[in-house]
TrEMBL record, chains A, B, C, D:
GO terms for molecular function: betaine-homocysteine S-methyltransferase activity; zinc ion binding. Pathway: Amino-acid biosynthesis; L-methionine biosynthesis via de novo pathway; L-methionine from L-homocysteine (BhmT route): step 1/1. It comes from Lates calcarifer (Barramundi). Involved in the regulation of homocysteine metabolism. This is Betaine--homocysteine S-methyltransferase 1. InterPro entries: BHMT (IPR051524), BHMT-like (IPR017226), HCY_dom (IPR003726), HCY_dom_sf (IPR036589). SUPFAM superfamilies: Homocysteine S-methyltransferase (SSF82282). Residues 381-400 are annotated as: Disordered. It comes from the Eukaryota. Homotetramer.
Amino acid sequence: MAPAGAKKGILERLDAGEVVIGDGGFVFALEKRGYVKAGPWTPEAAAEHPEAVRQLHREFLRAGSNVMQTFTFYASDDKLENRGHTQRFTGQQINEAACDLAREVASEGDALVAGGVSQTPSYLSCKSEDDVKTIFKKQIDVFVQKDVDFLIAEYFEHVEEAEWAVQVLKTTGKPVAATLCIGPEGDLNGVSPGDCAVRLVKAGAQIVGINCHFDPETCVKTVKMMKEGVEKAGLKAHYMSQPLAYHTPDCNRQGFIDLPEFPFSLEPRILTRWDMQKYAREAYNAGIRYIGGCCGFEPYHIRALAEELAPERGFLPAGSEKHGTWGSGLDMHTKPWVRARARRDYWEKLKPASGRPFCPSMSVPDGWGITKGHADLMQQKEATSQDQLKPLFDRADKGL
Amino acid sequence: MAPAGAKKGILERLDAGEVVIGDGGFVFALEKRGYVKAGPWTPEAAAEHPEAVRQLHREFLRAGSNVMQTFTFYASDDKLENRGHTQRFTGQQINEAACDLAREVASEGDALVAGGVSQTPSYLSCKSEDDVKTIFKKQIDVFVQKDVDFLIAEYFEHVEEAEWAVQVLKTTGKPVAATLCIGPEGDLNGVSPGDCAVRLVKAGAQIVGINCHFDPETCVKTVKMMKEGVEKAGLKAHYMSQPLAYHTPDCNRQGFIDLPEFPFSLEPRILTRWDMQKYAREAYNAGIRYIGGCCGFEPYHIRALAEELAPERGFLPAGSEKHGTWGSGLDMHTKPWVRARARRDYWEKLKPASGRPFCPSMSVPDGWGITKGHADLMQQKEATSQDQLKPLFDRADKGL
Amino acid sequence: MAPAGAKKGILERLDAGEVVIGDGGFVFALEKRGYVKAGPWTPEAAAEHPEAVRQLHREFLRAGSNVMQTFTFYASDDKLENRGHTQRFTGQQINEAACDLAREVASEGDALVAGGVSQTPSYLSCKSEDDVKTIFKKQIDVFVQKDVDFLIAEYFEHVEEAEWAVQVLKTTGKPVAATLCIGPEGDLNGVSPGDCAVRLVKAGAQIVGINCHFDPETCVKTVKMMKEGVEKAGLKAHYMSQPLAYHTPDCNRQGFIDLPEFPFSLEPRILTRWDMQKYAREAYNAGIRYIGGCCGFEPYHIRALAEELAPERGFLPAGSEKHGTWGSGLDMHTKPWVRARARRDYWEKLKPASGRPFCPSMSVPDGWGITKGHADLMQQKEATSQDQLKPLFDRADKGL
Amino acid sequence: MAPAGAKKGILERLDAGEVVIGDGGFVFALEKRGYVKAGPWTPEAAAEHPEAVRQLHREFLRAGSNVMQTFTFYASDDKLENRGHTQRFTGQQINEAACDLAREVASEGDALVAGGVSQTPSYLSCKSEDDVKTIFKKQIDVFVQKDVDFLIAEYFEHVEEAEWAVQVLKTTGKPVAATLCIGPEGDLNGVSPGDCAVRLVKAGAQIVGINCHFDPETCVKTVKMMKEGVEKAGLKAHYMSQPLAYHTPDCNRQGFIDLPEFPFSLEPRILTRWDMQKYAREAYNAGIRYIGGCCGFEPYHIRALAEELAPERGFLPAGSEKHGTWGSGLDMHTKPWVRARARRDYWEKLKPASGRPFCPSMSVPDGWGITKGHADLMQQKEATSQDQLKPLFDRADKGL
């Protein structure tokens, strides 16, 4: 295995027209495996249960990922603290451990290490540009010290905060990608996807796109709008999409957070591997070349992306040794009627049933219509008390 | 950690009225992680990728499992061979590696090791009782040598073959559990669940029940019928259920294999953690005390069983440190309307949407109506050829 | 037009192996047209708005009905009174008017007039056999005087009461048909469909079967069970089915009354004309020769029965002049893609969407589990008061 | 009853702020009753079966309609001829009969008679403005002679043709309403709803709005856009909506014609009476005062509009004598659990099930993307031949 330094960088790959396969969302995958707590969503597992995090990295690598994102989501000290995490590990310990794990596994294959920053409680609480930038600065210190290959500013609902992040990340000299968690309606201040993209490119991002909050169909549609905006402005960029692995046709502007099923009853919405192949093809056709995933993606979802784009890339991922394309492995199944499913035609046409005749196919999302600056979004150090929860419960019941 | 020998055995636990939490299905979980090939479904990963198998064992242990089943499903030489597995590992190597991994992780907590045998191609191909028993005998040699704690004969569609298996397993002197993969309509020869159970108990099984092929609701219903049969016959037994983690209200007698979504589009049917708590409670109320899972179960599903039965058992599993019961961890979520979901009332009532408005809620299962002895079920050493597949495809298309 | 007397009677037709097409349910059809009040469900429209009742008779005749059932459902004085009907018309006036309307329209084509009696409040309130029989006797006085062609005892949930009705009807010397509103689970006292049928035949009914409460699929299945019972007992009968025009896969023993959608939100369950053709064929194949409908049937549903069985009967109904079989009339549609639907293959395969993504596909029926003799079913002369309704509302809310 | 001349005219009513309740769609209602043939959709029943048409008028009047539209849809000689109608009646005979029937029933209550013209085959076949206007002129001769109360230009997919129609209708001196069958995306030439409305008002229409092709929700939304356009242009108009009684969330620009269920499997989409009350309220809140229906509306749907707006209008329709508002009549139902449904709260919250677990909730509409001028839309005198149908079938199959 060549040393990391010998690998082609992210921009070299994209400039050469290569497809870069991203990884999937660690928070949701590790929640199901028992190492992340939904609610706080903090990444202490990097230090606490490194074998579990390492194993997930390996599975994504094996599935075809070219990028190992450090598992550092929400790993700032203030977040770790106000989300009730008992301080067995400092933010720095977690961040360092996450970088080491990502690098260790990246070295086992053709993958780069990316360090990421996300939107901050401080922005929602209306802190100043300087305050917010200070937080980003502190987070990237570890990434610089651990020499990650590039940086990602991801999961921003307001383009203004993402611009600030990009400006800070650019100071490192490393390539910068920036993705918003918005849909075709634009960011939470009403800035259109096209305008968002232009602002991110102008701030210095070489790669722009969408991650999280919406299903692949919606994300690809939104990145297309970003691309049109960038091209109309006479600018250039690479494009990236890392959507959910959940079908979300019923989402409003705030995305899957607002669906009543978030986060503990999303199962019926999980995409199949065939849905993923469709996504990979549509993203490719839309001109997107950095194609990955976010919450809900399991290793086999990433493998499906790599399999769909194998003709363009010229190779299959390692994990395909355990997967016949388009179900062809089923020709070794015991039952003849299952062998009859060993073909593309069958799976591509199938409309899978939910097995839930008492459930609807779409939900009405919550629509509280509040964003940055609203009192309910101000964050406090203490856990939410029962007294604070009671009016929330009442309001929710009324809305049902 | 006490040595395995110091642990209470499976019968001691059940005789004492304790709840034993089983583990989940390795084949499906590892297929999603990239280590098992759907179609052959063979367990070479035990030798080939031990870190992946070990990690999954650990996650189930952490989720509350009291049993580590050796990952030896379909690990007989004839199966490994006729399913096209390149012989990097012998059946013996795989079986030994699987036993070692199960023991290693079991020793890290309060879990027993169980070795398992399943239905054979030979029975479907009408081989003699002696031939079939010889296969079982060979499989248990490794289990005896590795000194597993007890044995499970599981995944049998015909009670006759299961009886033969139980008779062989009994020769080891170890406790024996036996589960069929049948529903309320009985086995594929039309023997009712009650009669099946009586025959298994008479053959020597101390624990009887159902695994795989049907959803929890159906499995619990079928085990109840078994229990009624056993009690009516004046016999005694312990009861066990290890159902699918998929909703299957539309299945016929052959179970989920016949659903058009099997095995690559079952996602919309996956049970939520709340569905699992309901299952655990219903199984407990039905008098079942060995409660586990099969295909589709992920670690968080097993944890849900352990959490539901925590009042009876007196403790929560280790993995609950990352899970507030009934979503209570959401009181630390950023968005106030998500904090409003931090309660049992919310999740218990929610009817989750599929996000798939173009899909139905139930499917028409294949119904080829053939079983043991039919020419199409005779197994051959060679992979199925395209010439053999063509008529299967045509027949399947006609049925659509 | 030949005088009624010259027509072949109902038994002559059935004995000759002819298919007899019944009519549809007047109560539901006239409720939608504004002439029947849901709740009381009484037939005062026969006297109050004869033009509306006559028109509906004509539409069913035109659609192919060979039987005009007098619109006399619930037309006993006690029912009219205790259901709050202002006494503009006596029961006798309504019954006479209904007979005249049925005869008038029957004379315009090849149809017979049938007078019907149904289950009584008195039976549910545990009145004696004599009391109940007296009610039936009073009802048939008008039918005898108006010389209807045959009699139907229909809509009975308890076979015992139906037997009493048959015994009374037999005293007229006219042919007697008897249908229960039960499903495969049997009557509300748990008598199986086979045993019910045997008892009705022994009581003197020449035609037996099922009407109302369940969808065609369930009704045909239940009539099959009746036929098996009758044949096993060495008896002979003709068979008849008059099911709902609503899909009811989710019903329990009490039928569609218990569905939460009854009676004002049943629209999504309405059968298409193609569903009806399927029903006609299955009923015919099951040996049923008197094939009609009940609640929900509109004239075009009856026409679909007549069109499906046109090959057996040798002619199409008059109404088919306005209907190309299997959609063939669409070859004259303006849009070419609609012309492409002018064929059997298209409509037979189509799985029609509900256009209701926020609704489930099945409902949980109410299951209050009370029947004949329960205090809540005792009927009173006065309308239910708000004080009486309050505990019902509370109980219903709790069950949601 | 006062002579028609003594009634307040349509504009007097609307100018006074009154709510005008329209009627429902005759073509679909009479198709189900057996008097209209789907495909040709011609109104010969006005002359052929006047009793059926009269009865439907009466039912709508009784339900609360203030307008009796003459049943003259597609009643031009060229349409009658090229749709294969055997010439038992001339177009003039049909038109005259229709006017007489509408006037007869209107005189029985507080209703006006409206004569209507619709889009022409000639426009789609690119005939000149003069040719198209000549057709409209010929159609209104009968309306003038029969002295209808006002005129409606309805069911236009292209605003240009609707403008021509309005210009012709204005020559009569009678009030003119104009409705397009378009959705929020605008007419088939891409003109926005707002611009369409402005052009219609400038052409002389005093009432503008939407009819047919989309469900109430979509129609109200589109009329709102029209109103915004008109107000922005500094103009004034009255607004009207006559939507489908089918849920169509999945429609594209061409409306329900393109749904695969059109026209013979739309049943699962039929609106309930409660859906209708919601529509009436939303239409009223949007400033629409002429509120009626189109295809799929049955008399009870119109009654629901009148009941919802009874507080504003000060009275209930005659048909409400047979309908307790919000299901209150159920307090007289036999079963107590049905009596528990006698209240608004119950019906307003109910999500009705389809009873069709094997069907989806939404469909993919056909999208042939052709309109005015395309060869496939040119109309011929002869019926479409099998040779012409074959390529349509093939194209349709491919699209599935």
